[in-house]
Amino acid sequence: MRAYPQKRRRPMSTDWKGRCLCGAVQYEARGAAFAQLVCHCRDCQRASGSAGLPVVVVSAAEFSFEGEIRSYTITGGSGMPTTRNSCAHCGSLLFGTPQHAPDIVTIYAGSLDDPSRFRAEFVQFTSERHQLDAREPGIAQHAGRAP
């Protein structure tokens, strides 16, 4: 029997890259995520304009961005100050820098170049989740624009 050399599989990148809507700000986080979660606190709902905010938690030491951002600091759902960073041009919400945890950055998963990599490990502040989260089985779902 003839042996064929096995192809070496290239490991999937653990780097996280993303950008804003207009492309003026790009970011990259090198390495694996510490956590992936969806936060339903009222602060995340207001900041994102949705039912909850999918978040990838990465190392601040391995995070970098290019472009002009606008920062806004508020007391978050945890009761601790957090800074939310958006594109100064288009306003896209991109990442957070919680003051109580200066070693992490929270990337808002909707801004990822490949959001399909996001896999929530847990959900928090479910007591504040409400009907804006329309992923219920009884609600009609359309793959494209609704007819």
Automatic annotation (TrEMBL):
Record keywords: Lyase, Metal-binding, Zinc
Transmembrane stretches, start-end: none
Domain of life: Bacteria
CENP-V/GFA domain residues: 16-131
InterPro entries referenced in this protein's UniProt entry, alphabetically: CENP-V/GFA (IPR006913), Mss4-like_sf (IPR011057)
Family listed: Belongs to the Gfa family.
Protein name, entry field: GFA family protein
